[in-house]
Specification:
Number of domains: 2
Largest sheet: 5 strands, antiparallel
Number of strands: 11
Radius of gyration: 23 Å
Structural class: alpha+beta
Number of helices: 7
Shape: elongated
Strand content: 15-25%
Helix content: 40-55%
Distance between the termini: 46 Å
Length: 309
């Protein structure tokens, strides 16, 4: 029982550290984008950015030293990139990144208060969000510091293969595997299933797929060996059994049997996330409407598939 609990704890902290490192990577990417946008005078500004390198560039730009400002700002951003790179092997750099970003946020807070520019409050709020992820990453580093690397690697491999192992059976809402026995009798119909992904800023770039009349085991077998970036759908499945679902989009998929089955899967940075598995009784020429929403939590993400009407 104790070993099982230790494994759960290692898994929790390993996942938290990975998410924190992703947040650190976001700082690098969006800070670079913001510096480029500032240099081109676009007037746009993205969130999830370190603010002091950007403010340094703005300062030098204002006194006509654009080149100097660009070099200094890129060097400042490069520090975060170095932390992101080093944290993969030396987790202590997550603590260093937390300290530096906390200083960045504090100095930016002083600038906002000093100039009374409260339009940047939302930037401070998102800086607080990133700080949270860096904090849980630092906690994860502290908790994992006394764990053998071989044990951490074993748990991380188990996390990566968890869904593949679960493909031995359908994934129940509680997460346990069940044996698939499909002895259902189907009737022939000509009907549609329409799924709407509600538009949301959170997780907008995450890839969603609707899957109709396939078990999760069949889906896992179909995508075996493919990453979330290179996922390719065979012609016989595309738009018949599997269809990509973009943020704010509605996809309509035809079904020629009742009952039909439906679930949605999202490819996130920490693995695949499955919605609840729905069995749909269809009538001829009917279009059954569904909506799907994603909730991104601090410890896990979830997808909810809801029948409308």
């Amino acid at each position: 029982m104790q070993n099982q609990q230790n494994t759960v704890d290692i898994k929790k902290y390993a996942v938290n550290f990975t998410r924190s490192r992703h947040a650190l990577g976001s700082i690098v990417a969006f800070t670079l984008i913001n510096i480029i946008l500032a240099a081109t005078g676009s007037g746009w500004l993205f969130l999830f950015s370190a603010m002091i390198p950007l403010e340094i560039f703005v300062f030098f730009d204002a006194i006509g030293l654009v080149g100097v400002g660009l070099v200094v700002a890129l060097l400042g951003t490069g520090i975060y990139f170095a932390f992101w790179l080093l944290a993969k092997k030396y987790r202590v750099f997550m603590l260093v990144a937390l300290i530096i970003f906390a200083i960045d946020t504090f100095l930016f807070l002083l600038l906002v208060l000093g100039f009374g520019d409260f339009g940047h409050i939302i930037n401070l709020a998102f800086s607080g969000w990133i700080l949270y992820y860096l904090i849980i990453g630092t906690i994860a580093w502290a908790k994992l510091s006394n764990v053998n690397e071989s044990d951490i690697a074993a748990v991380q491999n188990a996390v990566a293969n968890e869904e593949a192992n679960a493909a031995l059976g359908e994934i129940a809402p509680g997460g346990s595997a069940q044996t698939i026995v499909d002895d259902t009798e189907y009737d022939s119909v000509n009907a549609n299933i329409a799924v709407t992904r509600k538009k949301s800023f959170v997780g907008s770039a995450i890839k969603f797929y609707c899957v109709v009349n396939m078990s999760k085991q069949q889906f896992e077998q179909h995508i075996a060996g493919q990453s979330k970036i290179t996922l390719k759908l065979k012609d016989e499945y595309l738009n018949n059994s599997i269809a990509p679902l973009k943020n704010g989009q509605t996809v309509t998929m035809n079904s020629t049997r009742t009952p039909s089955s439906l679930f949605v899967v999202a490819f996130t940075s920490t693995g695949r996330v499955y919605s609840n598995f729905e069995t749909v009784q269809l009538r001829n020429n009917e279009t059954a409407p569904f909506s799907v929403t994603m909730k991104m939590g601090m410890s896990e993400n979830s997808i909810t598939l809801t029948r409308e009407g």
